[in-house]
Amino acid sequence: MKLNTVLVLLSLWGPMTFSSHAFSSNEPIAARVNGEEITQMRLERYFAEYLEDQGRAVASIRNPTAYKKLRNAALDALIDKELLWQEAQKRGVQISDATVQNQVDQTRQAMGGAQSFARRLEDAGFNEATYTDYTRRELAAQQVYAELNQAEIRKAGLPDEKEVRAFFDEHRAEMNQPEQVQVRHILIKVPQGAEASTEAAARLRLETIRKKIGQGTDFASVARESSEDESASQGGELGYFSRGRMMPEFEAAAFALAPGAISEPVRTPVGWHLIYLENRMEASDVTEEQGLDMVRAYLARQKQVQARLQVLAQLRAGNRIERIDDE
């Protein structure tokens, strides 16, 4: 499960998740998903955190068009979250008590321990029981999303060799490349300006993970279980990239590694990372074989991205969504 701060997690569902009578029926509504309400308060809380994940603040957005676009994107994320949960209910997805409790324990540790965890829950108007309910929902929604993604990827299949060849022929002149590295990473999201205890807990968690990997555990397996980045389902795989493509702190650490090495925890604006260098390619002219392999990998990643978008598009098309916030 992907962790952020407790406030980020709770803002996704909000207290209304657990009690239909928690708020007055006249509270302003941002959207309805098959009749289930997403309140304006829930959207406002999530919007702030959505921007914070990008290293921005609401007050920093002065362009009304940009503000509306970002706010709509945040509302889309909440609608998708609700759709996935409702789909999990339809499918009867069950998450074991042990799995849920293990995730709650990890979150408590990431928040700096029991006292800090309890204080953050209380500040948000929750207790551990309601947060445990939230965690069960989140895991169920993630399981459904993963299943739907895999089904869509299987349906799409591997890139067709004719497509690979055509793409290669069109872009061959662009493929002579600078030095590149191929990395996997594990991300623990920590917003800028987080409390020292949150920073320390995230770093400690990565140091523990690093030690575990050093004792023989596969990096990709740990990334699937622990990373909070979208690449988690691919074992943290980011593919090859050259200088100037990543955040400066991340790039500097990645290019300093030798193949097979794992970085110390690295802080970037989005959180803390462990970086594993799988391979390094020196600047060179690309052979035909290398170019075709690169195209296959690129087109496969594009199919994965399209599969994720298609899953959400199908859910939106097959359910009743009212966006009151747009009216």
Spell out the blueprint of helices and strands:
Layout: H1 6-13, E1 29-33, E2 36-39, H2 40-52, H3 64-91, H4 97-110, H5 114-123, H6 128-156, H7 161-171, E3 180-189, H8 196-214, H9 219-226, E4 237-242, H10 248-256, E5 266-268, E6 271-281, H11 288-317, E7 321-322
Antiparallel strand pairs: 1-2, 1-7, 3-4, 3-6, 5-6
Helix pairs in contact: 1-2, 2-3, 3-6, 4-6, 6-11, 7-11
Descriptive tags:
single chain, alpha+beta, Chitinase A, domain 3, 7 strands, 327 residues, 2 domains
CATH architecture of the largest domain: Orthogonal Bundle
- The helicity comes to 40-55%
Q: CA-to-CA gap between the ends?
A: 34 Å
User: Could you tell me the strand content as a percent range?
Assistant: 5-15%
Chain-averaged pLDDT: 86
Task: Tell me about this structure.
- Strands 4-3-6-5 form a four-stranded antiparallel sheet, with helices on both faces. It has a three-stranded antiparallel sheet with strand order 2-1-7.
- The protein has two domains: 156 residues, Porin chaperone SurA, peptide-binding domain (Triger factor/SurA peptide-binding fold, Orthogonal Bundle), CATH 1.10.4030; 105 residues, Roll (Chitinase A, domain 3).
- It is globular and about 65 Å long.
- A hairpin with a 2-residue loop joins strand 5 and strand 6.
- The chain is an alpha+beta fold and 327 residues long.
- Helix 4 packs across helix 6.
